[in-house]
Amino acid sequence: MIFTERFLDGHVAVITGGGTGIGKEIARLFGQLGARLVLAGRREEVLAAAAAELEAEGREVLAVPTNVREAPQVEALVARTVERFGRLDLLINNAGANFVCPSAAITPNGWRAVTSTILDGTFFCSRYAGARMIEQGGGQIVSIVTPYAETGAPGLLPSCAAKAGVVALTKTLAAEWAQFGVRVNAVSPGAVDSEGAGTRLWPTPEDKEKVLSDIPARRMATPLEVAQVTAFVVSPYARFLAGAIVDMDGGQSLGKGILAHM
User: Fold this and answer.
1) Is 148 a catalytic residue?
2) Burial (CB count <10 Å: 0-12, 13-18, 19+), residue 17
3) Is 110 strand, coil or helix?
4) From CA 70, how far away is CA 199, in angstroms rounded?
5) I need a labelling partner for 138 at 20 to 30 A (CA). Which of 35, 199, 223, 238 fits?
6) Strands 36-41 and 12-16
7) Which domain range does residue 195 map to?
8) The whole model's pTM is what?
9) Residue 88 and residue 90: Cα distance in Å, rounded?
């Protein structure tokens, strides 16, 4: 752990997609920093396993099975959080969905599965958590986005469109809610070597090597590195950030043109 103080002592953090990968690593680090944890996700058994793992490390954890695409379930998630802990200080919008497909072949159901999880889910969670934060006098929301929200990416149209919407949502809510003490920002990692990402996005060694060849750092981020940047964003050291999109992609969005031939 790079941080030397428990600056999240007394804070309550809701992490969507908190049972695996980036979400679980954020939860682990936030727990080490003193936060009480609420894990949300669709798969009850996955959440239960993650909660047990974190509890074994001495953390206080509430697991709430939640489909973020359903507003009533998100409203219930916030209500259960406040009922258990009395407050809600941090929301990490990490729940996502993705698949590789040519745009002309995307079905309506495939489109909705991704865009509803990412865009609708982020809005619903931010809407209900944000209302609670405004009522209690402050809080923080961080959404996990991606650099291709701004550049586009062939084969990833639903995720591109939805994440671009989350970028706009982040900036808009930041402008509206800063006056209430609610900070809204986003962390934008490039390729992350996390659970499930490989099978969906680089299923073969050749696919993975192609991704790596586009990254000047010649490696992918780890879930812990994403968690560390997220922790910095919610830390006292970044309290004047509002509407920021913090890129961390190993230079991938910069490594075009002549650099690609060096």
Assistant:
1) yes
2) buried
3) helix
4) 27
5) 223
6) parallel
7) 12-261
8) 0.93
9) 6
Query: How many whole angstroms separate alpha carbon 25 and alpha carbon 18?
Result: 8
CA torsion 95-98-103-109 (nearest 10°) is -70
User: Is residue 4, in this structure, part of any structural domain at all?
Assistant: no
**CATH code assigned at 187:** 3.40.50.720
Q: Write the burial class of residue 4 (CB in 10 Å: 0-12 exposed, 13-18 middle, 19+ buried).
A: exposed
Residue 108 lies in a domain: yes
**Residue 104, domain member (yes or no):** yes
Q: Residue 114: which region, alpha, beta or left (left: phi > 0; alpha: psi -120 to 50)?
A: alpha
Q: For residue 153, what are its two tokens? A: 């990416």
| Mean pLDDT for back-to-back runs of 10 residues, the chain (262 residues) | 84 97 97 98 96 97 98 98 98 94 95 97 98 98 94 91 98 98 96 73 77 82 94 96 94 60 41
- Specify the pLDDT at position 130: 98
Residues whose CB falls within 8 Å of the CB of residue 125, separated by 6 or more in sequence, listed in order: 14, 16, 68, 74, 77, 91, 93, 95
Q: How far apart are the first and last CA of the chain?
A: 35
Structure tokens at 148: 């291709």
- Given a contact cutoff of 8 angstroms between Cβ atoms, the answer to whether 182 and 90 are in contact is no
Per DSSP, 119 falls in state I
- Give the residue from 29, 28, 25, 31 showing the smallest Cα distance to 12: 31
Task: Tally the domains of the chain.
Answer: 1
Given the residues 123, 148, 177, 202, the one annotated as active site: 148
Cα distance between residue 71 and residue 97, in whole Å: 17
Name the amino acid, one letter, at 104: A
Q: What is the DSSP letter of 243?
A: S
**Amino acid, res. 113:** A
Instruction: Please state the length of the chain.
Output: 262
Burial class of residue 257 in the structure, from the number of CB atoms within 10 Å of its CB (0-12 exposed, 13-18 middle, 19+ buried):
exposed
pLDDT at 65: 98
